[in-house]
Specification:
Layout lengths: L4 H8 L8 H5 L18 E2 L11 E3 L6 E3 L2 H10 L45 H9 L18 E4 L12 E3 L2 E3 L7 E4 L27 H7 L2 E3 L5 E3 L9 E7 L15 E6 L10 E5 L7 E4 L2 H12 L6 E4 L10 E7 L11 H22 L6 H16 L6 H11 L3 H11 L6 E2 L11 H10 L3 E4 L7 H8 L4 H9 L3 H10 L5 H13 L6 H9 L2 E4 L1 H15 L7 H7 L20 H22 L3 H16 L13 H4 L5 H18 L3 H14 L6 H14 L3 H12 L6 H14 L12 H4 L5 E8 L10 E2 L5 E2 L1 H10 L6 E4 L3 H10 L1 H4 L22 H5 L1 H27 L14 H11 L1 H13 L1 H4 L6 E6 L5 E9 L7 H13 L2 E9 L3
Parallel strand pairs: 19-25, 24-25
Antiparallel strand pairs: 1-3, 2-3, 4-7, 5-6, 8-9, 10-15, 11-12, 11-14, 12-13, 14-15, 16-18, 17-18, 19-20, 20-21, 22-23, 23-24
Protein name: Fanconi-associated nuclease
Function: Nuclease required for the repair of DNA interstrand cross-links (ICL). Acts as a 5'-3' exonuclease that anchors at a cut end of DNA and cleaves DNA successively at every third nucleotide, allowing to excise an ICL from one strand through flanking incisions.
GO molecular function: 5'-3' exonuclease activity; 5'-flap endonuclease activity; flap-structured DNA binding; hydrolase activity, acting on acid anhydrides, in phosphorus-containing anhydrides; phosphodiesterase I activity; zinc ion binding
């Protein structure tokens, strides 16, 4: 992959449908920045046209493009440059957890826990929810938050490639899911992650959302409820009162039959002690004459107190329905009561005290549920929460029309909001109305009508509204069979082409033929034929799609997160750290800054798409546009802004995005051997960005490219100037020093640089021989270990050091264990209250972690903590932080890979001074030093619980140290570490 491609993909995130693509690419750019791209010797087309000439066009099996003429030479080029057709990579939510779609899993939302019990799809399987998140076959999540079941946890282990579950059966209204070999496990006795919170606090404004995670414990352990103003008050039952009167809800109605309800209808409670998910479950039945019908369940939090009253004290509860919700599966408010308290004993008996405790807690739980009713659709709530938060903080970035659209959406009915959320999470853009079906949406006509009036959706119901671009998108709704039938129904002249075309063609080729017939006017009635096959279709409107994408981007501030981040938290899969969001400045001061940033992201997306399509012309055009914008950019002087927002918020500027496009363009041009063009771009970056942490890489590439074109003097001069640049660091300095020593020999330079002696320091080398499995060049080195099993060079080195190499214990970790130790030890510093570095509750690190301002702003906190580490308190700090934050997501911390015992042994044997030096280095420049550390960390203890550590970089027979690795080794030697390079070679025959 080209340098900078992966970073650009993360920046773009989910690709948008770019409606302004042509206008973006046609914008003015200065001439002379780049020369025209080289033409390939064989003609390649990325479209569906046949080109010119009489030779037949054939499909390249590697890149997917159409090629005229000899295919073999084109294949050689594709294979040589690693070009291949892009495949879709499954995400966590696209994994198929079962082989047969027979698992029915329920999402359960109790009265006041707001917790997901599990992903659910009515009459579906557990993998349906997974694919719903990011695929075209499903929405955000398919949940119905109504049941009395206890929250279940999901534990995913990846020790097998295929994850399967057995069939689950619905038992008495509650799902029972069994696991196969422990791969997928739902357990109501344990939580997903230690201390994982089911919800995110701090974002909600209404009292309905301000529920702490220990609220159930508070209800369980103390007789408290909420008063009208939201404060706590005691609920002391009157001992002389022989009546228990409770207001509660019927939940889990999806497991009962569809029964028409009326206000005032009588209900009764019945224990369901055989329920496999909740032994305290209580069913709600109708009090019909004859046989009673099941309506649903009492909320789990109330049932745990009412069940002993029914079982042990033989109380009988009945009541009536107080109101009827619109949704047939929504929670139903009811009032229940019992009046047989005096039948079990006197008030001074032990039985009465026990009874009174259950009674008091039941009253408390019922009072709490009055102010915290169940939330019926979690994904709807998440979307509304996102929009409200964005409007609250970034209202100045939206036009009045956009604010009106968002406010109109917030005022829509539940059905309309849920339908929009479902469609927004799917690929689309068009969907057949006849095939849209969600259990939680009651009236589709009213839902579509409300969305249409709010201009949130566009309907395709007549051929008058159909344009050629819409025609192509609507054709994607049809399957291959329908497209074939459509082609066969065209006129005779086109049918001959269809017969020649054959059945074994891809869907996009069918669509191209249909569009070709329409554009050539062979079939002017094609739109009506398409409409006859698809029926009414719906899509999110262009204006709504743009506004909601903008809101999502402003909320998460990156392209990697979307609404599925809420789901990960709700399921307990991810737990974000606790910190305070303090705002003093805006990221985007005005709307023009935001629009420029969005336009730059669109150019980056076109660049990424063009690379996928091997469209060199468009790639060059994107580079020209980016260079044009960067040429007019003036970087703010940071010399007087130490620790200011300028340093770490520059990544939200258009110029920063364009610089990433240019960097990727440099790699592309170097790959095409267009070094002069790459030199022009690198010089532009170095001139325009004087305070950028990427200057080291830019300087190095400029020096290398100048050498490629034969400008050795200028190449040496660039390298020498780079060594004086304060923004050139870590591995880049080592690489530039090496170039200066190599290029600066007489007669070009007569004086030896002062750093030559320190740079040429010898690093201790150890040689280990192993029996190789393969000796092929370009293939990963594999050896036979001492037990005869196959292993890599790192495992072979660990065996050597564990035996004859000195009885060392250790791990193959590279940078992982160091970043984990740094994150755990520096937790309070990383998540300290610093203004503007935490903008959302979905961050795993402050925005300034990879900038100089991280250390500058927190210098006092960092140095105070490093002083404790240096004086031997590292192990104590590690234990305290581990116990407080284990399982919480943090940048660089891997809780699963390294155990607490391993980390304790490591920090003890490393010693305080050396460990403090590494932590200081990472705090001062996390970005430059967060990679390239030695492969092995080894330690061994002495009798007095004192130990020593060793760091080892392992290299195979054909490997050599990178500049970043050499920089780390030299730094560690300066800190006093015991450092070695272990070179593994083949055993001589």
């Amino acid at each position: 992959m080209l340098k900078g491609r992966e970073s650009l993909i993360r920046l773009i995130g989910r690709r948008r449908r770019l409606r302004r693509r042509h206008s973006l690419l046609n914008s003015s750019a200065p001439q002379g920045l780049l020369i025209a791209p080289k033409e390939d010797k064989d003609e390649v087309t990325t479209g569906n046209g046949n080109g010119n000439g009489g030779e037949e066009m054939v499909d390249c099996p590697v890149c997917g493009n159409k090629v005229r003429g000899e295919i073999n030479s084109h294949l050689d080029k594709c294979l040589a440059r690693g070009t291949k057709r892009k495949l879709s990579q499954c995400t966590l939510f696209q994994l198929k957890f079962c082989t047969r779609p027979k698992v029915t899993v329920s999402s359960v939302e109790s009265d006041f826990t707001r917790t997901y019990v599990g992903p659910s799809a009515i009459d579906g399987n557990i993998c349906d929810l997974a694919s719903d998140i990011s695929s075209s076959d499903g929405p955000l999540n398919n949940v119905q938050d109504e049941s009395n079941s206890s929250p279940v946890s999901l534990t995913l282990t990846t020790n097998r490639s295929n994850i399967c579950t057995r069939e689950s059966s619905v038992c008495n209204g509650v799902n029972r899911i069994e696991n196969l070999d422990g791969l997928v496990k739902f357990d109501d006795e344990c939580k997903l992650l230690s201390g994982a919170k089911p919800t995110i606090s701090g974002l909600e404004d209404s009292p309905q959302h301000q529920i702490s995670d220990n609220r159930i414990d508070n209800i369980t352990n103390s007789p408290l409820s909420l008063s009208e103003n939201g404060t706590s008050k005691c609920v002391e039952p009157l001992e002389d009162d022989d009546t228990i009167l409770l207001d509660t809800f019927i939940v889990g109605r999806k497991f009962g039959g569809v029964i028409e309800l009326t206000i005032g209808a009588m209900v009764m409670l019945s224990r369901d002690s055989q329920n496999v998910k909740d032994t305290n479950a209580i069913k709600v039945l109708t009090e019909d004459t004859g046989h009673s019908k099941e309506l649903g369940f009492i909320p789990r939090e109330l049932a745990q107190y009412l069940s002993p009253l029914i079982d042990k004290f033989q109380l009988r509860f009945e009541g009536h329905i107080t109101s009827i919700p619109q949704h047939p599966r929504a929670v139903v408010p009811i009032q229940i009561y019992s009046s047989s308290i005096a039948s079990f004993g006197k008030k001074d008996s032990y039985g009465f005290q026990e009874f009174n405790s259950f009674r008091r807690n039941a009253l408390c739980a019922a009072e709490f549920s009055k102010t915290h009713p169940p939330i019926p659709a979690k994904y709807q709530h998440n979307l509304l929460l996102l929009l409200k938060e964005v409007l609250k903080i970034n209202a100045h970035l939206f036009t009045e029309g956009e604010k009106t659209l968002l406010k109109s959406f917030l005022s829509l009915s539940d059905d309309s909001q849920r339908l929009f959320a479902r469609l927004y999470a799917r690929k689309g853009p068009w969907f057949r109305m006849a095939r849209i079906s969600y259990a939680e949406i009651c009236d589709y006509e009213e839902a579509v009508k409300g969305l249409s009036e709010a201009e949130c959706v566009t309907l395709f119901e007549s051929i008058d509204k159909l344009q050629i671009d819409d025609l192509k998108e609507v054709l994607n709704v049809l399957n291959v069979g329908e497209l074939w039938d459509l082609l066969c129904s065209l006129n005779k002249s086109h049918k001959k082409i269809v017969q020649k075309f054959g059945h074994g063609t891809r869907k996009q080729d069918y669509i191209a033929r249909v569009l070709g017939a329409y554009e050539s006017r062979l079939c002017p009635n094609l739109p009506s034929m398409i409409l006859g096959k698809t029926g009414s279709c719906i899509r999110i409107s262009a204006s709504a799609e743009s506004v909601f994408w903008r809101a999502e981007r402003l909320f998460f501030l990156n392209g990697e997160q979307d609404l599925s981040a809420f789901l990960l938290v709700d399921l307990g899969i991810v737990k974000y750290p606790a910190y305070n969001c303090i705002f003093t400045d805006q990221i985007f001061p005005d709307r023009s800054d935001l629009l420029s940033y969005e336009e730059a992201i669109e150019v980056a997306q076109v660049m990424d798409e063009s690379l996928d399509e091997n469209n060199n012309e468009l790639v060059s055009r994107c580079i020209e546009i980016s260079a044009s914008h960067v040429s007019s950019f003036v970087e703010e002087d940071r010399s007087s802004h130490s620790g200011s927002m300028v340093a770490f918020l520059s990544c939200f500027s258009a110029s920063w995005v364009y610089s990433k496009v240019i960097l990727l363009g440099v790699s592309f041009l170097e790959h095409e051997r267009r070094y002069k063009d790459a030199i022009d771009l690198l010089k532009l970056l170095l001139v325009k960005f004087k305070y950028d942490r990427r200057r080291g890489y830019w300087t190095l590439r400029l020096s290398v490219d100048l050498e490629h074109v034969g400008c050795l003097d200028e190449s040496l001069e660039v390298a020498e100037k780079g060594l004086l640049d304060p923004w050139v660091r870590a591995g880049s300095i080592v690489a530039l020093k090496r170039r200066v020593l190599r290029l600066g020999k007489p007669p070009r330079r007569w004086k030896t640089p002062s750093f030559s002696n320190s740079f040429n320091r010898k690093i201790v080398e150890v040689h280990v021989q192993g029996r190789p499995v393969n000796c092929k060049t370009g293939v990963k080195n594999v050896f036979y270990g001492e037990d005869g099993e196959r292993c890599g060079v790192e495992e072979l080195a660990l065996e050597y050091y564990a035996g004859g190499g000195g009885c060392w214990q250790g791990v193959h970790t590279e940078s992982g264990i160091w970043l984990t130790i740094f994150g755990i030890l520096m937790w309070d510093v990383v998540f300290a209250d610093v203004p503007n570095v935490f903008r959302t509750k979905f961050q795993t690190a402050p925005l300034d972690l990879e900038t100089d301002s991280f250390y500058e702003v927190r210098r006092g906190l960092v140095e105070a903590l490093l002083d404790k580490i240096e004086h031997g308190m590292a192990e104590e700090l590690l234990i305290m932080s581990w116990e407080s934050h284990a399982g919480t997501a943090c940048r660089g911390v891997n809780w699963d890979k390294h155990s607490l015992s391993e980390l304790r042994a490591a920090v003890t044997c490393i010693g305080g001074p050396c460990l403090a030096s590494i932590c200081r280095n990472l705090a001062q420049d996390y970005r430059s030093w967060s990679s390239g550390m030695p492969d092995l960390l080894l330690w061994r203890f002495h009798d007095d619980y004192r130990g020593e550590a060793k760091l080892v970089e392992v290299k195979g027979p054909r490997d050599r140290l990178s500049e970043q690795q050499r920089a780390w080794l030299l730094f560690l030697m300066d800190c006093g570490f015991n450092v070695e390079v272990c070179k593994v070679s083949h055993t001589p025959i």
